[in-house]
Amino acid sequence: MRNLIITLSIILVALLGLYFVPFSITINETKHNAYREVNDTLLINVPTIDIMNSEVTLYIKLSDDDYTQLPEELSWKRNIYHKVYYTSNPKDINQIIKSMRSIITYGDIATATSEIIIARNDSTIFHSHIVIDSESGIQDGNKFGYCRIIDNNCFLDAISKMKPYYFPVLSLK
Question: Were 102 and a residue from 42, 122, 151, 157 both cysteine, which residue would form a disulfide, CB within 3.0 to 4.6 Å?
């Protein structure tokens, strides 16, 4: 089934010659995100035991606006037909979460239209808007506002291990 969907998507792109991203994502918002504040630093607080002992997947969905802003060194820049990346590898998820340690600015940024989602068994446990560029950050509109990632190179390295999500639809509860 997966190969059929990929083949049909490629044929559609070839026939129509259109810029086409065969993907839609539906999520239900979490009531509150798993953040922890330590000395003006924001940490994503998803317990390691949850990651190691359950089916946790981390997704990043790139918006069309943010796609053009990706750093040149990020391999995703060369793959224009994939806007969603994922990993289920516990080591990679831990590395990404640790690399997302951020400085709380309480500011607002209107261009944070990409999303990061952590799901356990297809249930959303974390969802936030994110910016991926030369100064990546998380947009938490509720309490902390825009939070700039401290070590952007570490973050870009961590997410570069993620793989493209090939199925055309993803629905998370």
Answer: 42
Q: Report if residue 12 sits inside a domain.
A: no
User: Residue 150: what are its φ and ψ, rounded to 5°?
Assistant: -70, -50
At 104, the amino acid letter reads I
The set of long-range contacts for 18-21, using a CB threshold of 8 Å and a minimum separation of 24, is: 19/80, 20/81, 21/64, 21/81, 21/82, 21/83
For 1-36, how does the pLDDT look when each residue is reduced to its tens digit (9 = 90+)?
Answer: 777 877 777 776 555 544 444 455 555 555 556 666
Tokens of 15: 């026939």
Q: Distance between CA 39 and CA 102 in Å, rounded?
A: 11
* pLDDT value of residue 154: 94
Number of domains in the chain: 1
Chain segment 125-139, per-residue pLDDT in tens: 888 888 888 888 888
In a domain, 5, yes or no: no
H or E, element range at 11 = helix 2-16
Look up the pTM and report it. Answer: 0.77
Enclosing domain of residue 150:
24-172
**Half-sphere exposure for 84 (CA within 13 Å, toward CB):** 18
CA dihedral (26, 42, 76, 85) in degrees, to 10, reads -30
